[in-house]
Every structure is written in C-alpha cells, then in structure tokens.
C-alpha cells in the first residue's frame, strides 16, 4: 500500500518536472525563433544565392577588397524579398536607415520594424558607412519586407590615412575647427564628420541614384540605427499624409518622432501640430518626398559649407537661409519613433 503510494508520487513528480521542462523549452525556443529570424530550409538556398560574396573570409579583407565589393553592391542594387512582396509601388513608403556599426541597436530597430503593421508593403534601404560581416548577415536575414543595402564609399574605414580618416599632412597644419568646417585635424570629429557626408549622399542616392526609386512619388522616411518604431508608425504616417491637405497644406515635412520625456499619451497620441522645422525637435523619424528633396538639393552649397559635423544643423541652416519656403513640419504629438541610443556613443563611435 505504502509502496504504491510512493511510486505514485514519484511518477507524479517526474511528470510535473517533465511538464515544466517542456514549457521552459518551448518558451525559450519561441523566443529564439522570434529573435533569430530563422530561415526555413528551402529558403536557405535562396538566401545564400542572394548574398553577394562568401563572407567567411571577411576579417582578412583588405581595404581594396572592401572597395571592390562596395562598388559592385552599389552597382548591382539587389532588392531582397522582391519575389515575396512584389515590385515597389510608386506611392509605397521607403524607409531609409543610416547605419554605422552599432549592431545591437540595429537588432532592436529591425525587431520593431518586423512587428509594424503593413511593413510588408514598404521598402527598407540600409545605407552603411561601415562594411561588417555581422551587420550584413543581420540585414540579409530579414524576411518581412523588401530590403536593399547601399554603401557610402568615402568612409573612415576605407580611408584610414586620408580624409575623412587621419591625414598626417593635413593635421600638421593644425587648422582650427572654426576656420575649417570639416576639419580633418580633430581626431574626435573624424568619424562623425562622415555622418554629414553620408547623410547627403544617401538621400541623393535614393532620390536620384537608384533604379528602383526612379518613378517613386511617395514618402521617404529617415531613420537611424538607434531608433525604435511603434507598431502603428506606418499607419500614422499614411494618415498624416492623407490629412495634410486639410490640416496643413503648406507642411512639407511629416514628423513621427519627438523627444518628450513625460507625456499624456491618451490626450495627445492622435494630435498633430504644425511648426517650422527645429533641429532639436524634428531630426528623428521625419518623411519627405522627391519634390522637397529637389529643392533641398539645390542648396547643396549652403548645406556643405555650413560649419557642422552632423547633418541636422546644416539642414536647419538650409531651411532658414536657402530654401524659398522654409521647412514646415506636421508632427504627431505622441511619438511613434523612439531614440534608444546613447547620445555620446552616437556622436563619437
Ligand atoms: C510609376 O510611374 C511611372 C511614371 O509615371 C510609370 O511609368 C510606372 O508605370 C508607374 N509604376 C507603377 C507601378 O505604378
Ligand atoms: C574611427 O573609426 C575607426 C574605424 O571605424 C576606428 O578605428 C577609430 O578608432 C575611430 N576613431 C575615433 C577617434 O573614434
Ligand atoms: C494595410 O494595407 C492595406 C492595403 O493597402 C490597407 O487596406 C489597410 O488599411 C492597411 N492597414 C493599416 C493598419 O494601415
Ligand atoms: C510632395 O509633397 C509636397 C508637399 O511638400 C506636395 O505638395 C506634393 O504634391 C508632393 N509630391 C508628390 C509627387 O506627391
């Protein structure tokens, strides 16, 4: 009798332990699936075909070899997942992401994009200024929308001993930062100066340099690697685009992001406001179209000569001093884009 009871308990406890083990296993496994963007076996082939090169030897790649790859990629303009989601519509949203090398932040951004409604209709373009195996693998594993990569060619990585990298000749002259807007002599500024050049290059590339965007008439949304989007960000952007004519016909920029720390979400999440572009407020998650870019592009001189290592104060300068009509922003009060990066890292890495 007692023996039977003990056996019963042992069986019962073993069953319970097995059950707990299975629950934990499936929980972990589902998390793993969710984050790792696991590729189905029959798609694996497709993916490796879609890759440009065998990436195994990257650590030993010389600058020359990286240069060859970058030129080839920019020329090839491969769009991943086009078979799955069809060609780009003229009015689809293009999401343009500037990527340096903070892969941990980029993972979070991609994860947030994967959760967004109607993301399958968008084209996401990653514009890189650092060639890196891990980053390329991450981007090329995306399955939820059309994806493209472009590489800014004139980077510190590829020019370590000349501008924008360290140029010993330039630095012996000790030009002051004030006198020289894109000073080559301040070691801290090298890697950030390329942010401004990269920003200008990628916008021109997307509006004027890519085959796939030649007929595009819709919005291009500007994001950076350390942003995080809300699940409804595309939905809100399209609503703003639709209501622009009624609410603010003169607005030429649509902004999804702001830096408000405390905020009454239920009072404001659906409200928009209109005001002139201000860099401290509107430099995150804004969208423009080709019409406006054509006007900004005419101000290239004003943008480039402005003494600023990043792009945003330069754009502010263009808005105030060069454009016929300054940038007027229609901004959502409840932010749909969040800045998760550390400012200092963002500025200096
Ligand atoms: C986009 O617009 C161009 C020029 O107006 C047109 O030739 C092309 O067929 C359009 N493409 C689509 C998918 O609507
Ligand atoms: C700039 O970037 C390069 C390569 O990305 C790195 O080796 C170097 O330490 C960086 N310099 C500064 C001053 O951050
Ligand atoms: C998603 O796109 C479809 C087709 O364009 C549209 O009918 C639908 O309203 C969109 N959904 C959201 C939440 O924006
Ligand atoms: C682009 O946006 C402007 C507002 O800045 C608007 O007037 C124009 O019609 C838009 N262009 C296209 C092609 O939709």
From TrEMBL:
Q: Where is it mostly found?
A: Golgi
Q: Which cofactor does it need?
A: Mn(2+)
The record's Pfam families line, in alphabetical order, gives: MGAT2
Q: Name one GO biological process term.
A: oligosaccharide biosynthetic process
The EC number on file is: 2.4.1.143
One GO MF annotation is: metal ion binding
**Keywords, alphabetical:** Disulfide bond, Glycoprotein, Glycosyltransferase, Golgi apparatus, Manganese, Membrane, Metal-binding, Signal-anchor, Transferase, Transmembrane, Transmembrane helix
Pathway membership, UniProt: Protein modification; protein glycosylation
Q: Can you tell me where the transmembrane regions are?
A: 6-27
- The keyword rRNA-binding is assigned to this record: no
GO CC annotations on file: Golgi membrane; Golgi stack
Write out the catalysed reaction.
an N(4)-{beta-D-GlcNAc-(1->2)-alpha-D-Man-(1->3)-[alpha-D-Man-(1->6)]-beta-D-Man-(1->4)-beta-D-GlcNAc-(1->4)-beta-D-GlcNAc}-L-asparaginyl-[protein] + UDP-N-acetyl-alpha-D-glucosamine = N(4)-{beta-D-GlcNAc-(1->2)-alpha-D-Man-(1->3)-[beta-D-GlcNAc-(1->2)-alpha-D-Man-(1->6)]-beta-D-Man-(1->4)-beta-D-GlcNAc-(1->4)-beta-D-GlcNAc}-L-asparaginyl-[protein] + UDP + H(+)
Query: Which residues are recorded as binding substrate?
Result: 98-102, 129, 194-198
Q: Organism's domain of life?
A: Eukaryota
- Residues bound to Mn(2+) are 226, 339
The record gives the membrane topology as: Single-pass type II membrane protein
Q: Where is it located?
A: Golgi apparatus membrane
Which cysteines pair up through disulfides? They are 248-251, 299-322
What family, per the record? Belongs to the glycosyltransferase 16 (GT16) protein family.
Would you tell me the protein name for this molecule?
Alpha-1,6-mannosyl-glycoprotein 2-beta-N-acetylglucosaminyltransferase
């Amino acid at each position: 009798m007692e023996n039977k009871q003990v056996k019963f308990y042992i069986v019962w406890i073993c069953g319970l332990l097995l059950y707990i083990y299975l629950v934990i296993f499936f929980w972990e496994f589902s998390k793993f699936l969710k984050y790792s963007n696991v590729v189905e076996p029959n798609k694996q082939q497709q993916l490796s075909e879609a890759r440009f090169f065998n990436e195994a030897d990257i650590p030993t790649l010389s600058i020359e070899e990286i240069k060859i790859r970058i030129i080839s990629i920019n020329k090839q303009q491969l769009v991943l997942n086009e078979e799955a989601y069809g060609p780009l519509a003229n009015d689809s949203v293009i999401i343009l992401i500037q990527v340096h090398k903070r892969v941990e932040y980029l993972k979070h951004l991609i994860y947030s994009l994967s959760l967004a409604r109607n993301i399958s209709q968008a084209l996401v373009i990653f514009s890189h200024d650092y060639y890196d195996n891990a980053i390329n693998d991450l981007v090329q594993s995306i399955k939820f929308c059309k994806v493209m990569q472009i590489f800014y060619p004139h980077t510190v990585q590829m020019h370590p001993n000349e501008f924008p990298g360290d140029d010993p000749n330039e630095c012996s002259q000790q030009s002051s930062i004030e006198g020289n807007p894109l000073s080559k002599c301040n070691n801290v500024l090298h890697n950030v100066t390329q942010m401004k050049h990269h920003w200008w290059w990628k916008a021109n590339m997307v509006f004027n340099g890519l085959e796939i965007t030649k007929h595009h008439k819709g919005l291009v949304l500007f994001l950076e690697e350390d942003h995080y989007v809300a699940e409804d960000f595309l939905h809100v952007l399209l609503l703003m685009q639709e209501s622009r004519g009624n609410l603010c016909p003169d607005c030429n920029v649509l902004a999804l992001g702001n830096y408000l720390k405390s905020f009454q979400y239920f009072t404001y999440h659906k409200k928009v406001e209109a005001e002139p572009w201000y860099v401290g407020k509107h430099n995150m998650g804004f969208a423009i179209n080709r019409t406006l870019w054509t006007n900004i592009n005419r101000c290239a001189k004003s943008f480039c000569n402005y003494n600023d290592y990043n792009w945003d104060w330069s754009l502010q300068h263009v808005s105030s001093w060069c454009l016929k009509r300054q940038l007027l922003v229609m901004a959502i009060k409840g932010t749909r884009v969040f800045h998760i990066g550390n400012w200092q890292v963002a500025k200096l890495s």
